[in-house]
Amino acid sequence: MSSGHNSLFSFLGSSVCLKNFNQLNGRKWHKERCSNGNVQKHCCNTTCLKWPCVRLTSLSPSSSFMILTALAMLFLKANVTAAMKVTSSGPQTIQMAQGDPVNLDCTYTSSQADIGELDIEWSVVSPDTTKKDQMIISYTGGRKYTHGDSDLMKGVDFTATDPSQGESLSIASLSVSHAGTYQCKVKKAPGVDSQKISLIVMVRPSVPKCWVDGGEAVGEPASLRCRSDEGTAPLMYSWRRESGGPIPPDAIQNSVTGELLISNHSVSHSCVYSCEVSNAVGKESCRLNLQALKSPNRAGVITGTVVGCLLFIMILLIIIWLLIFKCNWNQHEKEFSNEIREDAPAPESRPTSRISSFRSGVAYSQVGQTQNEHPPSTNTNYSTAKYDSRFGYAV
């Protein structure tokens, strides 16, 4: 009989079974192979009082219930063997910064019944239950195998040189693509168990920029701004004064937008401020020197603005008048020039000289002689040309 049965009957002996036969009140707790003497001497003798010896019908209801409970516990203990167990010493959810190394812990404990070949598998669980998980690295038959794409497997390995002595997973430099749910599965027939670890890869905040939105004039509102262009949300902003005590209570700080609003700026607000932006994996800060400038004279500003506007209007009117005057002047000059040309007398003809008249006459005379073809006369009379004071010599 197994040790589980022995412990059961020890429990029965202390809680249910009576110490002598007289307390049995005549109930029979034995079978033929158990002598009456043994039962009378020690009714809970495990040598005699075995499983088949008990007759539940001869017990009271309360005693029967207690015996049934004990027998059920014995049955479970006798038939359930300690199975394979995979555990992790670290948290189930790990948050790490991009670029950092990480170890995903996985440890197994096997039973004596697990005599099969050791098989270790690390895989990334698919968020879609209809798709298969992506195996990344495994150990079987005493050899290590890598799976998946090269980008995901870069820097991924078992923490131990011999995975059978250390099945934890190591990632040398995290990237955003490494984020996911990892499963460590250990098989050693007939035992098998697995453990899941969620890995969250976050980007650290970049160095923020600090500036004053608006102005730094005394009596005016001043808005101190802080913003980081990179970093995994949520990003939290926090302003503090590097000197002069804490931030005044009248200043309103927004940890989400990174704004520090001072509704009424004064000299007491003037100092160096520091803004820190942070998330779960890192933090950065920037500094800003807030000054208190005297506000300009409003009356002078208004007067200067009005005078400037009037001067601008006057200059604009002068320019328009000059353009109109120029156009009219050009048109007047053009009309005056046309009038002068219409009133001017025609130029006098120059008197014809005697020589030119004579040459013309000679020319005409020769032409006429050629056309008439008369023989020249032997008696030629020349008349003397008369001079006229207005027209010259007659032709």
TrEMBL record:
<feature type="domain" description="Ig-like">
    <location>
        <begin position="205"/>
        <end position="291"/>
    </location>
</feature>
<keyword id="KW-0812">Transmembrane</keyword>
<dbReference type="InterPro" id="IPR013106">
    <property type="entry name" value="Ig_V-set"/>
</dbReference>
<dbReference type="GO" id="GO:0016323">
    <property type="term" value="C:basolateral plasma membrane"/>
</dbReference>
<dbReference type="InterPro" id="IPR003598">
    <property type="entry name" value="Ig_sub2"/>
</dbReference>
<protein>
    <recommendedName>
        <fullName>Ig-like domain-containing protein</fullName>
    </recommendedName>
</protein>
<dbReference type="InterPro" id="IPR007110">
    <property type="entry name" value="Ig-like_dom"/>
</dbReference>
<keyword id="KW-0796">Tight junction</keyword>
<dbReference type="GO" id="GO:0005912">
    <property type="term" value="C:adherens junction"/>
</dbReference>
<dbReference type="InterPro" id="IPR036179">
    <property type="entry name" value="Ig-like_dom_sf"/>
</dbReference>
<feature type="domain" description="Ig-like">
    <location>
        <begin position="61"/>
        <end position="198"/>
    </location>
</feature>
<dbReference type="Pfam" id="PF13927">
    <property type="entry name" value="Ig_3"/>
</dbReference>
<dbReference type="GO" id="GO:0005923">
    <property type="term" value="C:bicellular tight junction"/>
</dbReference>
<feature type="transmembrane region" description="Helical">
    <location>
        <begin position="299"/>
        <end position="324"/>
    </location>
</feature>
<dbReference type="InterPro" id="IPR003599">
    <property type="entry name" value="Ig_sub"/>
</dbReference>
<dbReference type="InterPro" id="IPR052307">
    <property type="entry name" value="EJ_Adhesion_Regulator"/>
</dbReference>
<dbReference type="InterPro" id="IPR013783">
    <property type="entry name" value="Ig-like_fold"/>
</dbReference>
<dbReference type="Pfam" id="PF07686">
    <property type="entry name" value="V-set"/>
</dbReference>
<keyword id="KW-0472">Membrane</keyword>
<keyword id="KW-1133">Transmembrane helix</keyword>
<keyword id="KW-0965">Cell junction</keyword>
